[in-house]
Specification:
globular; 0% strand; single chain; mainly alpha
């Protein structure tokens, strides 16, 4: 998850790129069933999805 995190943290990363990253990281599953994602053993993925989600929500 190092490369996607670097891309996300880059100031040139725009909203569309963030949405694509959220989609490709299976972020819709997080929206449909947050408990399934939070109970996952993949800590890096959970942290990454949470970071993208928070960035997208806080843009509005």
């Amino acid at each position: 998850m190092d490369v996607p995190t670097v891309i996300l943290e880059n100031e040139a990363c725009d909203f569309g790129t963030g949405l694509l990253m959220f989609y490709f990281a299976d972020g819709y599953r997080m929206l449909e069933d947050p408990d399934e994602v939070s109970s996952s053993s993949l800590k890096e993925l959970k942290d990454f999805l949470s970071e993208i989600y928070n960035k997208i929500i806080n843009l509005s």
